[in-house]
Amino acid sequence: MFVPAIKGQGTEEQQKKWLPLAYKFQIIGCYAQTELGHGSNVQGLETTATFDPKTDGFVIHSPTLTSSKWWPGGLGKASTHAVVYARLITEGKDYGIHGFIVQLRSLEDHSPLPGVTLGDIGGKFGSGAYNSMDNGVLRFDHVRIPRDQMLMRLSQVTREGKYVNSDVPKQLLYGTMVYVRQSIVADASKALSRAVCIAVRYSAIRKQFGSQDGGPETQVLNYRTQQSRLFPLLASAYAFRFVGDWLNWLYTDVTQKLEAKDYSTLQEAHACTAGLKAVTTSATADAIEECRKLCGGHGYLNSSGLPELFAVYVPACTYEGDNVVLLLQVARILMKTVSQLTSGKQPVGTMAYMGKVQHLMQSKCAVKTAEDWLNPAFIQEAFEARALRMAVNCAQNIGQAANQEEGFYERSPDLLESAVAHIQLIIVTKFIEKVQQDIPGHGVKEQLQNLCNVYALYILHKHLGDFLATGCITPKQGALANEQLGKLYAQVRPNAVALVDAFNYTDHYLGSVLGRYDGNVYPALYEEAWKDPLNETVVPEGYHEYLHPLLKQQLKLSRL
């Protein structure tokens, strides 16, 4: 985020000065925004940057303990510079949060500069995981920087101390957010597909129960309980991959529109990327843990690769925007869109379905048989009706409150569910669109169609209450969807291993003895066990001091 921040908020002159230094690693930068007392509420940050006209510079200061910068990656030990976010104060007025480039350490001996106190915040979740990242703490004691180290693309302070907004629109910041969140969604697909690859391959190797007359036991992957837990995760991995590819296109589209000074789709793009970041990261974190359980006891071993993968991935639910906070931002935009439906203003992009409000509020699902749920038009309309009706219900309930903010606060749990419904509609839509394209390879399109239907019907089954409560489908249609889902699992089963092999991950990248491509799991597990440092000695340390006296009954017992 150090480089994107300078790119997005720095002037051309600042970019020419600082970016080459960063690209060549002549300086090492970090992004110092989050504080001990404030994370999601950026406007609540306490660090100050006070302009001093006598020296033509800013004084960066941490006025309270809670204003200490806390969590920036690379800060603890490595970084020499930071983009520091602080409250800009000039002529006695607070102009809110702005970015400043601040040198933290000497480029000669790496020691902290005067007035700078910094270090690492300590161990984090997991044995390895993010503990290789030097997340840091940083405090300033009246540290002075030149005025031109304020990032001045969007606003600036003159030599006389006047605060001036530039003619560059603040909407340009959306471009950076779309880029970062697009990459997070792509990472979700990679992490989930790794976990699913391990679980599917191991489930095909592992055999348990079912032996008849001394014959072979049953592959765990053949049990319907295993399939009903695992195959929706496999489908999700593909779904997130395709929606991530689409987000990549969206970033390019947003960038081109920004350059053309077209800001019409920015709000919708922000809602889309924020919501997808929240939904995909939460689902992936839960799915990695589920894959560990699906691998039984061996999944708990570090050598399975799953504990480390979970520990490394789970922070994604919090960094770059807490998922609940992001979903509430999506909900606000949904409520605004609903309020504009009567004005004749047509929703755009992924919210275009809301323009069909009269039809979707009254439509009845036409499904009559289980096979009808394989019709993408029926699936699409059910998801659109659910998302729209939940949003409209929330808007109506908020309208009954004493004021809008109070209503939003009271209905925030419902708003979260409404936002999730909207984002799940986007994922289903992009999966359907992908399947409807010309796809090369014999039988590939059929398999992707199966996975698309698994994902959609699994989400419908999981959130059946939403679909029933809003009247989008009947209980009978919900039962038919579940019946069809079971049939789809049977169709996915013969190609399950091939579908994870298609991710083309090397054994080195997977880092799992359970997910080996050659399936040689048990010898690998046995071999890995002997590499443990505890096995470097046959008789353990402490034997003569503790175990030997205990075994010989020579320990002195307390009179108590």
Automatic annotation (TrEMBL):
Active site (catalytic residues): E320
Keyword Flavoprotein applies: yes
Subcellular location: Peroxisome
Pfam families found in the cross-reference section: ACOX, ACOX_C_alpha1, Acyl-CoA_dh_M, Acyl-CoA_ox_N
UniProt: FAD binding residues: T34, G73
Residue ranges occupied by any Acyl-CoA oxidase C-alpha1 domain in the UniProt entry: 174-335
Transmembrane segments: none
InterPro entries documented for this protein: ACOX_C_alpha1, Acyl-CoA_ox_N, Acyl-CoA_Oxase/DH_mid-dom, Acyl-CoA_Oxase/DH_mid-dom_sf, Acyl-CoA_oxidase, Acyl-CoA_oxidase_C, AcylCo_DH-like_C, AcylCoA_DH/ox_N_sf
Domain of life: Eukaryota
Main location: other
Domain (Acyl-CoA oxidase/dehydrogenase middle) ranges: 30-131
Sequence ranges assigned to domain Acyl-coenzyme A oxidase N-terminal in this UniProt record: 1-28
Lipid metabolism among keywords: yes
Co-factor(s): FAD
UniProt GO BP: fatty acid beta-oxidation using acyl-CoA oxidase; lipid homeostasis; long-chain fatty acid metabolic process
Cellular component per GO, a single term: peroxisome
GO-annotated molecular function: acyl-CoA oxidase activity; FAD binding; fatty acid binding
Occurrences of domain Acyl-CoA oxidase C-terminal (ranges): 376-552
Keyword annotations from UniProtKB, A to Z: FAD, Fatty acid metabolism, Flavoprotein, Lipid metabolism, Oxidoreductase, Peroxisome
Family (UniProt): Belongs to the acyl-CoA oxidase family.
The name this protein goes by in its record: Acyl-coenzyme A oxidase
Species, as recorded: Panicum virgatum (Blackwell switchgrass)
